[in-house]
Amino acid sequence: MPFTKVPEYSAKHPKPADITYEYGTAGFRTIGENLESTVFRVGLLAALRSQSKQGQVIGVMITASHNHERDNGVKLIDPLGEMLQQSWEAYCSKLANAASDADVQSVLEEVARAEKIDTSIKAKVAYARDTRPSGPLLQGALEDGLEALNVEATNYGIISTPQLHYIVRCLNTAGTRAAYGEPTETGYNAKYGSAYLRLVEGKEKPTTLHIDAANGVGAPQVRKLAESINSPYFNIEVHNHDTETLGKLNIDCGADYVKSNQRQPAGVTLIPGGRYCSFDGDADRIVFYYADEAGRFHLLDGDKIATLVATSASVQTAYANGSSTSFIKDSLKLPTVFAKTGVKHLHHEAEKMAIGVYFEANGHGTVLFNPSAVTALTNATPTSPAQADAIERLWALRDLINESVGDAMSDMLLVETILICKQWTLADWDQAYTDLPSRLLKVVVNDRSVFQTTNAEQTLTSPAGLQDVVDSIVAKFPKGRSFVRPSGTEDAVRVYAEAATRHDCDQLAYTVAGAVFDKAGGRGERPAEFL
Ligand code: G16
Questions:
Q1: Closest residue by CA, ligand 1 atom 10
Q2: Cα-based distances in Å from 96 to 38, 63, 101
Q3: Ranges for the Phosphoacetylglucosamine mutase AMG1 domain (predicted)?
Q4: Are the CB atoms for 43 and 151 separated by under 8 Å?
Q5: Which residues line ligand 1 (CB under 6 A)?
Q6: pLDDT for 402-438, tens place per residue?
Q7: Spatial CB neighbours of 449, under 8 Å, sequence gap ≥ 6
Q8: 65 assigned to active site
Q9: Angle, alpha carbons 68-74-80 (nearest 5°)
Q10: Model's pTM, two decimal places?
């Protein structure tokens, strides 16, 4: 029987009785030391997922990305490097919550039956982790899960999340017409670095790009990318690169900090005319920023990246600043659609477009070329040297983009390419439109599962009556917009607000957050009253 060894292995990684796990926005996320049983079980499920895909390689990434260092997480990556098919998320949650070691075996049997899995197929898994202190413990648990089901497993070490997505896609497409590249770190750097140079060489060289690496895995990885590119066209200085000292990851730095606080990270002094960007802890998000002559901070977030890149349709979430949506529709005259938060939702919408651009405001996104666009490019016959050059540049552009998932390093090279080709400074790019003032707050409540939403998460359907309260508050503010949704990566409810002025925006955000706290079981400190 394929699963007979499972209970014995499972006994080494007992599930804490009082915790219920849920596969959320980007897999399981919680305090690292509470995740051992879950990561072990994800290893088991990765094996079944691989068998259900006729032995293609499935990825397992251990990371909690932008979250605090004490947190950790784990997610599965499907064969083309995309997020796990959503119908399997329920299996993940069920397995993670199985009460006993025997139940773990029963759930596996149930999944194998439901999905008609041939368990004699050799399962293959590629795994990696970020720099978090709980990483080695969780990696050990994962390896036990893989061993229990005799999986052919490869450890890719400490790499960025998008690098593992890339590697999984490379492994499963090797030797086919869709071959994506060499499934190694070196192959990743060579692919993206050479595409970048093909696009920018011969143009004017950019000035230094200052990178805040959030004291995470992006620091060593972007340095390796720079060594591989080895050109004055990629001249970087890496800040917040301490991955050794405990307590530094994502603290007062990184893309999430910069976006949420709308200020530069600690450890970086902004000089007017300088060029800056921040990665998050696992290097799947990026935001840019600069200081103007008066020293004022200006943020170029995922919305701004989308408008820089968009030549075709785009996908946004409710967090997209209202000004960016108006700019895409009214000035670029491009269609834009809304999806729920989480790149897994945006990715699927973008797949429906010929060239689909999707970015979350937090800096997580990419560009997808669907098969019809690739066929058109393949069949295009140039009738002039200029057309031949344009086609060649489009191929290089496609090679520059990590289509499997949002990727800070690939996105950074994409933005640099566009800025170099247009000869734009960050301030030039920023001119396109002015963001409405916005604010994102967190409210801790007793039970965030009571928060249910519809309309791409912009409208609450539960708790009963709360949406009416939000609507009545919003109505008082010119250009006001606010929504409330439960986070899928943290134990909190998020409140987003934007309005015509900074004062109105903050008042709106804190009033809505206060109403959530009062009417839906707020815990701890009430969101500070805005005066
Ligand atoms: C993850 C997801 C993103 C999402 C973010 C916040 O980011 O990949 O798509 O926007 O969480 O999600 P939530 O508001 O549900 O907590 P990351 O960078 O942490 O992987």
A1: 342
A2: 5, 17, 11
A3: 207-287, 313-424
A4: yes
A5: 25-26, 65-66, 280, 284-285, 341-343, 360, 362, 364, 487-490, 494
A6: 999 999 999 999 999 999 999 999 999 999 999 999 9
A7: 486
A8: yes
A9: 125
A10: 0.95
